[in-house]
Design goal:
This protein is mostly helical. It contains ten helices and no strands. Helix 2 crosses helix 4, helix 2 crosses helix 7 and helix 3 runs antiparallel to helix 4. The radius of gyration is 19 Å and the shape is globular. The chain starts with a helix and ends with a helix.
Length: 207
């Protein structure tokens, strides 16, 4: 409703929603790489709490690598990817808008895998509210941006909405990371590549 009030039925709003859907499909691919984290974490937790923390720490490194890999790939081949799925002609204003918005929203690919692991771990530790807040923050942040435009506090562009979404994702990541730090998941460097971690990585690529 807020977006429609500001941008109307325009190329900007259409391009943003299309780009948003494209990023969601990429994030599903990222999810396949880390989806089994909780299963292996619980197995390590049966062995010992220290072993589970070590598995979490090395899984965070893995998820950062996944984020960087996806971000780099889609920065290099964003035009080809967009034109593969775009319903518009290659040189249309809508396609060019999608390409521009994609460059902003694609920064979220760096954050999503790490946030997913943090959220699942907090759920496993019975901290259910924090993952919910973390997943909601990007949309709250976008709503704040649109509200500022709606009350004409600032002149809002569609790129500002994309930036605010990324800010919301980053805020959610900081929130969950701080909560896990408070619970002792970063107090000691316990990183080690256990056999279960190797199986976790192997299964991630075989899914």
């Amino acid at each position: 409703f807020q977006m429609a009030s500001i941008f109307g039925a325009s190329q900007e709003s259409d391009a943003f929603l299309i780009t948003f859907s494209m990023l969601a499909s990429i994030q599903l691919l990222q999810l396949m790489s880390v989806e089994q984290f909780l299963y292996f974490y619980q197995q390590q937790k049966v062995e010992s709490k220290e072993s589970a923390i070590a598995f979490y720490q090395v899984s965070i490194l893995f998820s950062v690598g996944i984020g960087i890999s996806f971000f780099t790939f889609f920065q290099l081949f964003d035009t080809e990817f967009i034109r593969l799925f775009s319903v518009f002609s290659n040189k249309s204003n809508s396609t060019l808008l999608i390409e521009d918005i994609f460059k902003y929203l694609s920064w979220g690919l760096l954050i999503y895998p790490v946030s997913y692991i943090n959220d699942r771990l907090l759920n496993a530790e019975s901290r259910y509210a924090l993952p919910y807040i973390s997943e909601t923050l990007p949309f709250v942040s976008m709503s704040v941006c649109l509200f500022l435009g709606l009350i004409q506090y600032a002149e809002i562009t569609i790129y500002d909405v994309a930036i605010f979404k990324n800010i919301g994702m980053l805020a959610g990541l900081f929130l969950t990371t701080f909560a896990l730090w408070r619970k002792g998941f970063f107090k000691h460097n316990l990183i080690r590549f256990t056999p279960l971690f190797r199986e976790f990585v192997k299964n991630s690529f075989l899914m």
